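no rush on this but wanted to send it before i forget. what follows is a protein written twice so to speak, once as letters and once as structure tokens for the fold. mainly i need to know what kind of three dimensional shape the backbone takes. thanks a lot i owe you, the record is right below.
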Amino acid sequence: MLGAIFGDIVGSVYEFNNTDRMDFPLLSKGSSPTDDSLMTLAVADALMNTWGKGDEEIKAELVKSMRRMGRMYPEPEGGYGGRFGVWLTAEDPKPYGSLGNGSGMRVSSVGWLYRTLEESLHVAELTAEVTHNHPEGIKGAQAIAACVFLARAGASKEKIRTYVTDTFGYDLSRPLADIRRDYFFDPTCPGSVPEAIRAFYESADYEDAVRRAVALGGDSDTIACMAGAIAEAYYGMPEELKMKAMQILDPFCGNIVKRFQMFCHTHDRTIQM
């Protein structure tokens, strides 16, 4: 999960100031967590709080946790999406049919927590549908969660790519160099989830995946968040970058990360394929 957060932090300064260079400074003065990191943490917190409970309890806690995070951090770097911002403060929050990539950027903890791919897909759907209940919004969350799970399980890149293509219908055949020629800011799942997965697919290590995601342009913090989530599960994450991420997070957010790490160590998450 920290791999998603660090990817978001790296991409934060390039979201509205895109770069196509791979040698950009990994961190700069303005690098900070955006709504991507905050909602990633909120989802992880909710899933830990409802471990072993039923779907309706999980969904209720997801709503509670995300709205609590929204109240604590009302103006994150880059801001919240328009409809999501309204949802955060609504008297009676309801899903609003979004296909935005918010469902994909916040789901990484699912791929780490559950023992089977089927369970991961099911919980990913729950995390999406409290807001992003459009089929494409749900599909985006499931695709990222599946990639994290499969990478964690030791699947090859080709197996991951084949699974995503066959299951979700995403075209992952186009190289980033070709995509970059006509790519634009597209904050939807169909317009950013395949690109994030492709950035991971072409990468050589964790940092390279994040750099490729950011250098693609577009919604760079979210693409790097999703690519970073998969890359951490596949390659691992350098200790130096973990330390930098924790140094940037405030104590409240950092404590959720520490709790998540401990939770993963103390609960049975033995992979069943």
Notes: DSSP finds 15 helices and no strands in the chain. The chain has a mean pLDDT of 97. The CA atoms of residues 34 and 77 lie 5 Å apart. Residues 55-72 form the longest helix (18 residues).
